[in-house]
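User: Could you check the structure of this?
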Amino acid sequence: MVKEAFVEAADSLFRDFKNKAEITSSIKALQLSRSTVTQRCEAMAEDLTQQLWKDIGDCQCFSLQLDESTDVSDTAQVCIFIRMVFTDITAKEELLTVLPMKEQTRGEDIFQSFKNFIEKTQLPVYKLVSITTDGAPAMVGRLNGFIAKCRQDDAFPDFLNYHCIIHQQALCAKMLNMKEIMNVATKIACSIRARSLQRRLFRAHLEKADCDHSELLLHTDVRWLSRGKFLQRFRELCPEIKEFFRVAGQAEYMQLNDGQWLLDLAFLTDLTNMLNDLNLQLQGKDKTVINMISSVNAFKRKMQHLSLKLQRHDLINFQNLASELEMQGMACLQLDSARYTEQIDNCLSEFDKRFQDFSLLEPVATFMCYPFREDADVDSLASKIA
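Assistant: Sure, the predicted structure tokens are below.
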């Protein structure tokens, strides 16, 4: 099919080429049988592997990041990513390997699997400078965690270890004291989407109402960004949901008519959207710990500023909350701002607790950004990361 499409497109793609006939003839002569494609894929995989190991040999140092997940066959897979730094200060990120854990996933099991990989591939572990993991006991346990086992092994040099910044940010987001709001919204969404007939009827209802959306999203804790999108869609469809329950003759959820619950939903939607924006800033290739520290600190200062604005009943940054107040015919001054500033303060406290290791790295990050500052104490900075 690919070959036939390529032949059809060749007439347009190479129309102005002098050797058009030769190119077309070469395309028609391509061998694309299953065995040929398999051999080509294997050759490309081998070439990529050789390039990766050449880069590992040429780099000055590298850092690793481990992430454990479970596939559809319930086999635990430990993905190991490598970030290499070269003599010209350029960096490259690649997937190093995936280690299947067919039995237990204790710290010693993960370490032994990784140790076997090192011995098999002759990974130059002496170039290792840091390892990033999540905060699971199997990874960071004091005695038997993966990091502890690495430190106990003489083959490993002294290295830094970090708790994944994105993971910590997601944990901070989960600490918002509004679990009841999330549970009710999730329950309502599931009651509509759980049965095929109910879901079709709701879609038809949205079409009749000429709504901007044609579906109600679901939320899953596995996908961190789904919470903000789910809440935003749910809040926008609240009037349609209430009308759907009324027309269908189903018992309505009393929270949908509770003004305070709707205000809490609007605030949680605004705050979760802000946390989602931070999560997106932390993602992507070529992000350094300096970039991430800057993004987290900027978010904390933003939250402090928004807390002060809420105390003054300034809702310019809380569009959903302001919209809900307007729908309920309330003035901004009637809002119980202390109820929401407390939530922001709790979120900030959780950030301070989760990111307390930043106090060690912040001076180093500042020096890397502004190396010619007069107050830069190079000897002190070097001791912080030695």
